[in-house]
Amino acid sequence: MSITGVLIAALIVGGTGVFIGVFLGIAGKKFAVEVDEKEEAILAELPGNNCGGCGYKTCRDHAIAIYNNISEINMCSPYMRQKAENIANLIFESSPFLIGLVDKEMNILEFNSNAKQFFDIKDDDYIGYPMFMYVDDAAFYDCLNNYKNIYNNIVPIEDMNKTLSQDIFWLYDEEIFMWMAYDITEKIENKKHADQVKQDTMELA
Predict the structure, then answer these.
(1) Cα 177–178–181 angle (5° rounding)?
(2) From CA 73, how far away is CA 165, in angstroms rounded?
(3) What separation in angstroms does the CA of 147 have from each of 60, 139, 171, 172, 179?
(4) What's the Cα-to-Cα distance from 67 to each of 34, 50, 88, rounded to whole Å?
(5) Could you give the CA distance from residue 105 to residue 128 in angstroms, rounded to a whole number?
(6) Contact 110/101 with Cβ under 8 angstroms?
(7) Which terminus of the chain is more exposed, N or C, with fewer CB under 10 A?
(8) Which tens digit of pLDDT belongs to each residue from 180-197?
(9) pTM
(10) What is d(CA 145, CA 200) in angstroms, rounded to the nearest whole number?
């Protein structure tokens, strides 16, 4: 084949490629499906696992229904479960109380930041440790064996010269304890001081 023939063939191929490219570009614009940003935002909130629990085949179908006010996002169980977990985590970390989760063998599953700060815990090595390493666990057994929650139980932390008031709840479905406590050391010391002042005043009278 001559050079001229090669050039002609190249031009034909190149021209065909340009034509196809332009045609596809025009067709793409003409037949493009409009995407509603609000609908996409709703879809982004859903888990995307297409479980069908909401009554729709796909999460996109559900998003369209929500967008058209036919359904509500709280019909999505995974979404609501994740939302509940997020709220629980927020409460767990933002609460002023010392909070812990303890299994039925009295081993620690998790402490919140306040509890770790109180016990001067620097890392996560405490997970799996027995609760009695930090707090007397007698009240936990009382809670479990007598089927009752514990409220305002005073427990001294002797090696820290601290005193806590604790509440203990047995969560039946999860089969774990929720432990909540706050430091009442200062309150006790103030009461002791007030009692001493009162006693000294009575002796001087």
Answers:
(1) 130
(2) 41
(3) 46, 12, 11, 10, 15
(4) 15, 17, 28
(5) 10
(6) yes
(7) C
(8) 999 999 999 998 888 888
(9) 0.64
(10) 45
CB 59 within 8 A of CB 50: yes
Sequence-distant (≥ 6) Cβ neighbours of residue 95 within 8 angstroms: 112, 114, 180
What angle is formed at CA 199 by the lines to CA 198 and CA 203, rounded to 5 degrees? Answer: 120
Nearest to 167 by CA among 179, 183, 155: 179
CA Rg value for the chain? 33
> Could you tell me which of 182, 188, 190 has the C-alpha nearest to residue 118?
182
Q: State the CB neighbour count (10 A cutoff) for residue 51.
A: 13
Q: How far apart are CA 155 and CA 39, in angstroms?
A: 54
Using one digit for the tens of pLDDT, what is the confidence trace for 28-85?
Answer: 555 445 557 888 888 898 888 899 889 999 999 998 998 899 999 888 988 887 887 8
Cβ-based neighbours of 59, under 8 Å, separated by 6 or more: 43, 46, 47, 48, 49, 50, 76
Judge whether 176 and 201 are in contact, CB under 8 Å. no
DSSP 8-state symbol, 74: G
Cα(132)–Cα(65) distance, integer angstroms: 53
